Amino acid sequence: MRSLARPVLVVAERLDAAADMVVDQLYARNVPVMRLDVADFPQQVTLCARHGGHGPGWAGTLDDGRRTVRLEDIRAVYWRRPHRPRISDTVPDPYRIWARDQADAAALNVLAALDVRWINDPHHDRVASHKPPQLVAAARAGLRVPSSIITNDPSAARTFATDVGGPLICKPILGGRLPGSTGRDLMIATHVADPDTFDASIATTAHYFQERIEKAFEVRLIAVGGRLFAASLHTSSAQADVDWRTDYDHIAYGTCEIPEHVAAGVHRFLSAYGIVFGAFDFAVTHDDQWVFFENNPAGTWAWVENQTGLPIAAAHAHYLQGEPG
After folding, report:
1. Does any domain span residue 24?
2. Higher per-residue pLDDT: 288 or 186
3. Same domain, yes or no: 220 and 195
4. Facing residues of 144 across strands?
5. 100 and 157, same domain (yes or no)
């Protein structure tokens, strides 16, 4: 029957372990899947969407040259960090930039107009990715957050350090990588900030300083479709203690229980942004206080499942399949 054949659309880059795991889970449930990267549109993927004369929504097809799905048959979309469209070299600049933006807007907004389940709706995802508003949303949700300042004023930074009266860290306001001289991208990691070194260089750009939380361990908490999974990260090097992404060799992985008030706060946080997935980072202090650092609405989690066995991919498939939480 048609209702049983409705596919899930997976929009992700080709080399994405999390997307692979979700696709495997969907296939195991006999749910058809079409997977594509927006980078393949418009050169390898054809979109034909019509509106009018057949109901309130858009209707049409997506075709990648191997299979075709009808837009009106799609039951859910898993949108996971796809690349931007690639336009043919035969289109000269500046029209190539214009053509890329047109293709990007078409792929994003035609799909966003579908009345389906999303992980996550990309419009909500983009809003939810910004760190300064996250602290406000987390505090309103009842989660504890660290004292923070964003400034390009050296004097204000020094005053903040005095007010905190303890160790500080400096972290990027906007995630991302820089091209390195060896051809490999450089990650801008969180690092310890020494107030004695605060000088006029702070005025060169915005800096994000935060009190350093003395922690027993950290937690990568994955929320998906109403379910929560918590992986504990116990670090054994000074480098990993500041930013565990910089020293994976000194991390011991486990699982932990999530306090009820933290779980409730996470659900309120997600609801405020209109998203169903998040990769949250918390510190757990020596007196068992959970401190929210940030949430990545398109964060990595395949390694969490691989290290702990938590059934995160299955939870994605469960939600995308259309099952209640």
Report:
1. yes
2. 288
3. no
4. 291
5. no
Residue 59's nearest CA partner among 68, 50, 69 is: 50
Query: Cβ(70)–Cβ(61) under 8 Å?
Result: yes
Instruction: Judge if 195 and 241 occupy the same domain.
Output: no
The model's pTM is: 0.92
Q: How far apart are the first and last CA of the chain?
A: 24
Same domain, 201 and 248: no
Instruction: Write the CA distances from 274 to 25, 261, 271, 310, integer angstroms.
Output: 25, 20, 5, 24
- Choosing from 192, 211, 230, the residue where a domain stops is 211
Classify residue 65 as left (phi > 0), alpha (psi -120 to 50) or beta.
left
76: which strand partners? 8, 117
The residue type of 33 is V
Tell me what pLDDT residue 184 has.
64
Q: 134: which residues sit within 8 A by CB, 6+ positions away?
A: 128, 294, 295
Place of tokens 């989660």: 143
Give the structural domain span for 270. 215-321
Residue 187 sits in a domain whose CATH number is 3.30.1490
Q: Are residues 247 and 280 in the same domain?
A: yes
Cis? peptide before 82, omega within 30° of 0? no
215: nearest Cα among 277, 292, 152: 292
Alpha helix stretches (DSSP H) within the chain = 17-28, 95-112, 122-128, 131-140, 154-164, 238-242, 260-273, 302-308, 312-321
Cα gap 35→289, rounded to integer Å: 41
pLDDT bracket for residue 285 (50, 70, 90): very high
HSE-CB of 308 using CA atoms within 13 angstroms: 24
